[in-house]
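Dock magnesium ion; give full complex structure.
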Amino acid sequence: MPEFPIEILKTPEAAEAVRIITELKNAGFVAVLAGGCVRDALLGRKPKDFDVATDATPESVREVFGKRSTLAFGESFGVIGVLPPRSTAAEETSHKRMPTEVATFRADGNYSDGRRPDSVTYGDAEADALRRDFTINGMFYDVFDSRVIDYVGGLEDLSKGHLRTIGKAIQRFEEDKLRMLRAVRFATTLGFSIEHKTFAAIQNHASDISVVSGERIGAEMRRVMTAPAVDFGLETLVDTGLSLHIWPQLQTMNWTEFSRSIQAAKQPTFETAMAIALFHLPGDSLHTLRLIFDDWKLSVAERRAVEAALTHAETITQCDGLAWSRLQPILVDTDAPTIVATARALAPKSRGVARAGRALSGDPNELNPPPLVTGADLISTGMRPGPEFKAILQSIRDDQLDGKLKTREEALQRIPTGDE
Ligand code: ATP
Ligand code: MG
């Protein structure tokens, strides 16, 4: 069975949760680390955040820490955010007072909408473990007794690498449809296999994923796409039938090619991974991107980066002999890192990619030297902004980039005078 690495409690990230647990204990309450942080610590991974669970009611939590140091984020679900005291080490390292989530042990009532419980009642640690989604997410750690509290068989599943719902899979997915996609996300990010009954229940209920909001689907898909085993993750989406309702085009993915590219990309960003996937799907990838962008409520910046990669990555793979004035505008684009990373994944050995990569990581002044002449120079000769004006500036800029114009004097000569 995996052991809890107690050194992790001394890290600045965990210190705040330990402080909160200590204060709650001093006030006479039970308080433990809960959920994802216990799972990740046991796996030797760095937890994203340290959540606390307690038998103190939300009101008591607010009393213990003071109203001004607490945020009522999900008071109806029994979740209070506790802020660190001002100017602690945690604040200095993160520059922000990030709240720690403190959740009262609870049992969830009925789920009538397939998304959230109609009501919650406060309960004990065991009830709280049972309302959680997967066994590996259902454990607590008592920092005073140095003991993992496991009511759900999480330790065993963790050691076997199994993802299994707590309780009957069908019922747990009927309650909250998002859990189906979370199952694929955890299996992908942790490299776990989805236990047979859990898998079969997802297959049976896959079409219900449509009741989940686009934002939540997008949030899970960001995690899937940035996991090292993203190829396994996307194949699992297809095998479970979830992809039909989330990303139907995935059914036609060229898996061999996709795996090769995504592995070549080495820890791609979400945008790069999306671009790589779209490159290996037949059909109009820009069109598919727009559909997905709308469905998953992706940000404008994410969409722009993926679009830039879809538009320019192939040019980069073949840019070996391309004039610098044609290549440079692509490399000064905000999304150039996504474009080049995508190109590298598509053609890791391409000389064009090597050239673009060198330019991008080289001297910024060489990549984008200040222009020898500007619009102001043209205006001072009496020219008015317009298409011709733009064309002249562009042609001077191109010649500057291609080394045909070296000095400002030479460049100024290219501006037509009134007599020409
Ligand atoms: P990470 O923070 O890395 O995404 P996590 O396990 O902490 O992983 P969160 O979404 O932060 O995931 O949720 C915290 C905990 O709350 C989970 O570990 C799980 O116990 C519980 N939980 C979260 N979402 C659900 C859900 N939809 N149904 C049941 N329990 C859930
Ligand atoms: Mg978490």
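Observed: The first strand starts at residue 31 and ends at 34.
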